[in-house]
Design goal:
Number of domains: 1
Largest sheet: 9 strands, mixed
CATH superfamily: Spore Coat Polysaccharide Biosynthesis Protein SpsA, Chain A
Radius of gyration: 17 Å
Strand content: 15-25%
CATH class: Alpha Beta
CATH topology: Spore Coat Polysaccharide Biosynthesis Protein SpsA, Chain A
Helix content: 25-40%
Structural class: alpha/beta
C-alpha cells in the first residue's frame, strides 16, 4: 500500500499580513544558505521519506507555488480559498486519494521523525500531538483517554486537554473511508469554513482515532509573525 501525502496550502495567512499579501503562507522563507520556504522544506522532507506522490492544494498565489515546485508534485486548485477552509481543500482531493494518506497543514514546520512515528503506529487513524505544548485559545487542543482521541477543538477547555494537534496526520483503510464520508457530508451541508480537525471530531462517534505523542521534537505552526521568527531562528536550524 503506497503512501500519498496531501499538503493543504491554499490559504493566504491573513494574520501574517503584509508578509502574505502577494504570496501564500506556505511560501514564507526560512533561513538557510538559500532561502528555503516552508512548503519546499515539507516537500523535501516527504521526498526524503520515499513518498512518491504528493498532492498540494493551492489557492492564494498558486502560480508562485506551481513555478517553484514545477512537476515535483501534483496540484489540486481550491478556487474558493477565500470563502472556505482546510476541510474544503481536503474535500477537493478525495477522488484522487488511494488507501493510505498523510495529511499535512501547509504552515507546519516539523522533522521527519513525526512522520516515522505515525507510520510506526499500529492504528489506522492517527494524529501527531505534543503533550508538552503550551495550550491557549489559539491551540487546536486534543483530549485523550489513554492514546485514544475523545475530543479535538480549539475551544476545548485547557484543563480537559492533554496536548496540541500538530497538523500532521495519517489515515488508511477503514478510518480513511470514514473520514472521506464525513467530509463529503459536511461539505454537502455547506460546512466548508472549518478546519479539517472538525471532521476528525465528527468521526469520533463512528470510528476511533488515536494519537502519537511527539513531545520533545522541534516543530512549530506558523500563524503569527512571532511564529515565523521563531521558526527561522530556533526550529529550522534544528531540523534542516
Amino acid at each position: 500500500m503506497s503512501l500519498q501525502a496531501v499538503i493543504l496550502a491554499a490559504g493566504q495567512g491573513r494574520r501574517l499580513l503584509p508578509l502574505t499579501r502577494d504570496i501564500p503562507k506556505a511560501l514564507l522563507p526560512l533561513n538557510g544558505a538559500r532561502e528555503v520556504t516552508i512548503l519546499e522544506h515539507q516537500v523535501e522532507l516527504l521526498e526524503g521519506l520515499g513518498i512518491e506522490e504528493i498532492l498540494v492544494v493551492v489557492g492564494h498565489g498558486r502560480e508562485k507555488i506551481e513555478t517553484l515546485l514545477g512537476h515535483r508534485v501534483s496540484y489540486v486548485v481550491n478556487e474558493d480559498y477565500q470563502r472556505t477552509n482546510s476541510i474544503y481543500s481536503f474535500y477537493l482531493t478525495l477522488e484522487r486519494l488511494g488507501q493510505k494518506v498523510l495529511i499535512v497543514n501547509g504552515d507546519v514546520l516539523f522533522p521527519g521523525e513525526v512522520v516515522e512515528r505515525l507510520l510506526s503506529s499500529p492504528y489506522e487513524g492517527v494524529l501527531s500531538i505534543d503533550t508538552a505544548a503550551f495550550l491557549d485559545e489559539e491551540t487546536m487542543k486534543v483530549a485523550l483517554e489513554g492514546s485514544r482521541v475523545v475530543d479535538i477543538r480549539k475551544d476545548l477547555p485547557t484543563q480537559e486537554a492533554q496536548g496540541e494537534n500538530l497538523g500532521v496526520v495519517l489515515f488508511r483503510g477503514e478510518p480513511l473511508e470514514v473520514l472521506k464520508s464525513v467530509v463529503k457530508e459536511m461539505v454537502a451541508k455547506g460546512d466548508v469554513k472549518r478546519w479539517i480537525p472538525a471532521a476528525f471530531k465528527e468521526m469520533l462517534s463512528i470510528r476511533p482515532i488515536y494519537a502519537v505523542d511527539v513531545k520533545g521534537l522541534p516543530w512549530i505552526e506558523i500563524d503569527f509573525p512571532q511564529d515565523l521568527e521563531r521558526a527561522q531562528k530556533e526550529i529550522y536550524p534544528l531540523i534542516r
